[in-house]
């Protein structure tokens, strides 16, 4: 109820603006005033995926900085970030609260594949942007079928294909053993890998084993992979399991060439717990700058990030790649809002989000850019292969593109 | 309506504020109906959705109460029967295009069979052992739903997206309002069924088994039949609730039916009041709205706040919300009739 007067006022102002001077007309969607842009978000602050909650905190902290500097075109960003505990029914409930009660302009950066799936149709039926969802599934980039939904990070399928192509070219005698999480995320990677391997896939892949998020360890899976005689290990696991897998493989004296999915490429939260010496030689693909990598010490983008982190998230873990993720995603959104100017309608937000060209962000690797178009709803599509030398990620070959 | 028992003779004719006990009851019922029917017209769509979900949960909690509250068999696994109902409904709609309303009785029937079958071996398990067996069921559910062999029906971890039904016969209702009334109608039916079941011979038999199984047996009650029957009926209620929940949420996925759901039902049953029928509604309101309230108080530790709420409820209202209400009514009545 408290909203109606504002909405009417906004309408009146819009009308007035149109009458007096069409050139500087302000067009506002729900949740927008001359002083504020209200946006929503669902995040797993509790539950099995709560480690990713830090992404939401980093995004809020980035908007805090933007607001301290005067906001976007004089409007502050008001991010309402709600906990969904990674449970799809809860996501539906919270999303509907954001759209129908809080009347946000759009929902940004919602995290998780099952959770976003539950509201995918809702957003597109209601014509509310579901912008930059924090999941790497490949289904978020279908502008024809779902024009109101857009992903952000490189999708898992693309990354899997990059590994597949690399193996095909550089390891002709590969016998690949795969460990993956038994869900969309895991399967996207495996399908991508198979696509990259092409007609070699059948011959090269000798074992595929899965685990569930709720499993305590993946020890038995690693033992069975070793038993399969594989000399290449494709490790599609989330951080906790990735560390377990790397350590277990080393401990049972299995030394294949290891490909580790980007999801778990953090030195601080994966390779260190696994043991830096045990992780030597692991290959991954990345698009973000790893904050623990000393190469970036004098890099301008990194220094900006570190200054922001120290001021706005002083108690955070500096090695947490999720903070880099949140920072970069939030930075992308600010570009979209700046580009939208005074036309802050839902339609224009999608139009601007689909009009990003050659956008450089502080914490994207050199050469990686954000590019979208009316038919391209995959913002980041380039990745660089890296190998771990026991201390740092060292670039391997040239930039791989989709 | 079967007011011929339970009421102590001395209180039968007492009146409060000029109205008899029976008149008060009708007045209360009228008020309840007005609120229930009026809700979706004053609430926003999202609130209506929340209340639809509350009604579905209330049926599930009632189902659990039949088993645990009335019959004394502890179940930590009712989320599994909720999932059976939800998936039955979703699969029927998704694969065979069955209309949503027709899936609800099927979901109930399949859950009834599942509950009865699970209840038979469970006869051998008493108290905590049964709790553990049902616990295993709850923990296994999400993984069973992800099984590769079942994927062509269940959609694996990706789940199934359901299309939301429109109001039929050109009724001027939104989808949310229609679903609310649809769910409300089924809720009323289920509560009347439960009431008739529990207030009669069957209910007394269930209570007798709970209070002293051997004595019940001596009195000629077929305990094995009643116990597995209670399991079946309880699962049926929960399955119907699952189907309604799935239609309201428009999506089923294994992650929606984790162990936590079963615990939420248990919490709702105890908060509402053990062995009460209308307590299920209070319990359902609790599990839908208190977690949000907790989230508003502290984003950092919502479950800790939730825990505090549960402990407070247990401490302040050991007989549940309904128990508290009853005590207040009794006290009010004593005071009022004393003043007469």
Explain what the structure shows.
The complex is a heterodimer of chains A (402) and B (340). Chain A is an alpha/beta fold. In chain A, helix 2 links the parallel strand 2 (36-43) and strand 3. Mean pLDDT of chain A is 88; it is low at 15-23. Chain A has 13 helices and 13 strands. Chain A starts with a helix and ends with a strand. In chain A, helix 9 (239-251) packs parallel to helix 10. In chain B, the strands form 2 sheets. Chain B has a two-stranded antiparallel ribbon with strand order 1-2. A two-stranded antiparallel sheet of chain B has the order 3-4. Chain B contains 14 helices and 4 strands. Chain B has 340 residues and is mainly α. The longest helix of chain B has 27 residues, at 223-249. In chain B, strand 1 (15-16) and strand 2 form a beta hairpin.
Which descriptors would you attach to this protein?
heterodimer, A: 402 residues, alpha/beta, Rossmann fold, four-stranded parallel beta sheet, B: 340 residues, mainly alpha, two-stranded antiparallel ribbon, globular
Short description:
The complex is a heterodimer of chains A (402) and B (340). Chain A is of the alpha/beta class and 402 residues long. Chain A has 13 helices and 13 strands.
What is the secondary structure topology, with strand pairs?
The complex is a heterodimer of chains A (402) and B (340).
Chain A: H1 4-20, E1 27-28, E2 36-43, H2 53-68, E3 76-83, H3 88-101, E4 106-108, H4 113-126, E5 130-131, H5 156-170, E6 176-181, H6 184-197, H7 201-204, E7 205-211, H8 219-227, E8 232-236, H9 239-251, E9 257-260, H10 267-274, E10 283-286, H11 300-312, H12 321-340, E11 343-344, H13 346-353, E12 382-388, E13 393-401
Helix pairs in contact in A: 2-12, 3-4, 5-6, 8-9, 9-10, 12-13
Chain B: E1 15-16, E2 19-20, H1 21-42, H2 45-70, H3 78-96, H4 100-122, H5 127-145, H6 151-154, E3 160-161, H7 175-198, H8 201-211, H9 213-218, H10 223-249, E4 251-252, H11 259-272, H12 279-297, H13 302-316, H14 320-339
Antiparallel strand pairs in B: 1-2, 3-4
């Amino acid at each position: 109820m408290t909203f109606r007067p504002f909405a009417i006022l906004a309408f009146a102002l819009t009308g007035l603006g149109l009458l007096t001077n069409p050139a500087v007309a302000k067009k506002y969607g729900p949740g927008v005033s001359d002083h504020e842009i209200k946006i929503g978000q669902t995040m797993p602050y509790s539950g099995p995926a709560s480690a990713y909650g830090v992404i939401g905190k980093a995004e809020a902290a980035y908007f805090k900085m933007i607001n301290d500097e005067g906001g976007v075109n004089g409007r502050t960003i008001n991010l309402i970030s709600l906990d969904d505990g990674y449970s799809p029914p809860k996501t539906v409930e919270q999303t509907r609260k954001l759209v129908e009660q809080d009347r946000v302009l759009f929902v940004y950066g919602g995290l998780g594949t099952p959770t976003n799936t539950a509201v995918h149709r809702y957003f597109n039926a209601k014509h509310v942007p579901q912008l930059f969802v924090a999941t790497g599934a490949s289904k978020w980039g279908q502008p024809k079928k779902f024009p109101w939904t857009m992903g952000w990070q490189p999708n898992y399928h693309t990354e899997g294909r990059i590994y597949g192509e690399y193996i095909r070219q550089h390891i002709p005698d590969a016998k690949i053993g795969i460990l993956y999480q038994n869900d969309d995320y895991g399967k996207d990677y495996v399908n991508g890998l198979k696509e990259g391997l092409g007609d070699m896939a059948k011959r090269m892949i000798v074992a595929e084993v899965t685990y569930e998020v709720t499993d305590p360890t993946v020890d038995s899976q690693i033992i069975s992979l070793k038993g399969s005689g594989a000399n290449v290990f494709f490790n599609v696991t989330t951080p906790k399991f990735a560390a377990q897998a790397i350590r277990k493989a080393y401990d049972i004296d299995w030394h294949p060439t290891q490909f580790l999915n980007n999801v778990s490429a953090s030195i601080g939260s994966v390779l260190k717990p696994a043991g830096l010496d045990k992780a030597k030689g692991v290959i991954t693909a990345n698009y973000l700058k790893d904050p623990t990598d000393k190469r970036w010490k004098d890099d301008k983008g990194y220094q900006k990030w570190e200054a922001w982190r120290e001021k706005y998230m002083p108690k955070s873990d500096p090695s947490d790649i999720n903070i880099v993720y949140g920072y970069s995603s939030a930075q992308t959104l600010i570009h979209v809002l700046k580009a939208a100017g005074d036309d802050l309608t839902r339609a224009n937000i999608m139009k601007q989000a689909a009009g990003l060209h050659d956008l450089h962000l502080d914490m994207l690797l050199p050469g990686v850019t954000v590019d979208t178009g009316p038919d391209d709803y995959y913002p980041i599509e380039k990745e660089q292969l890296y190998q771990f030398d026991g201390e740092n990620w060292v670039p391997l070959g040239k930039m791989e593109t989709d | 309506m079967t007011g011929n028992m339970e009421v102590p003779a001395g209180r039968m004719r007492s009146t409060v504020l000029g109205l008899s006990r029976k008149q008060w009851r009708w007045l209360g019922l009228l008020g309840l109906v007005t609120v229930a029917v009026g809700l979706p017209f004053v609430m926003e769509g999202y609130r209506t959705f929340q209340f639809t979900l509350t009604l579905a949960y209330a049926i599930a909690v009632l189902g659990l109460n039949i088993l645990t509250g009335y019959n004394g068999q502890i179940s930590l696994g009712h989320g599994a029967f909720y999932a059976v109902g939800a998936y039955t409904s979703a699969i029927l709609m998704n694969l065979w295009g069955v209309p949503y309303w027709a899936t609800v009785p099927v979901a109930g029937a399949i859950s009834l069979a599942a509950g009865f079958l699970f209840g038979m071996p469970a006869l051998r398990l008493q108290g905590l052992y049964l709790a553990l067996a049902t616990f295993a069921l709850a923990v296994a559910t999400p993984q069973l739903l992800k099984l590769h062999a079942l994927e062509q029906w269940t959609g694996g971890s990706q789940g199934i997206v359901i299309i939301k039904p429109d109001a039929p016969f050109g009724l001027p209702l939104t989808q949310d309002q229609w679903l609310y009334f649809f769910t409300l109608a089924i809720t009323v039916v289920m509560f009347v069924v439960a009431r008739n079941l529990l207030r009669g011979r069957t209910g007394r038999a269930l209570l007798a088994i709970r209070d002293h199984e051997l004595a019940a047996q001596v009195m000629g009650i077929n305990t094995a039949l009643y116990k597995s029957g209670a399991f079946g009926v309880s699962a049926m209620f929960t399955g119907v609730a699952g189907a309604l929940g799935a239609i309201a949420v428009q999506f089923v996925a294994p992650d929606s039916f984790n162990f936590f759901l079963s615990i939420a039902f248990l919490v709702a049953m105890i908060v509402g009041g053990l062995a009460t029928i209308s307590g299920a509604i209070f319990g359902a309101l609790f599990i839908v709205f208190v977690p949000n309230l907790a989230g508003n108080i502290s984003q950092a530790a919502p479950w800790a706040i939730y825990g505090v709420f549960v402990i407070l409820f247990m401490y302040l209202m050991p007989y549940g919300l309904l128990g508290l209400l009853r005590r207040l009514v009794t006290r009010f009545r004593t005071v009022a009739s004393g003043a007469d």
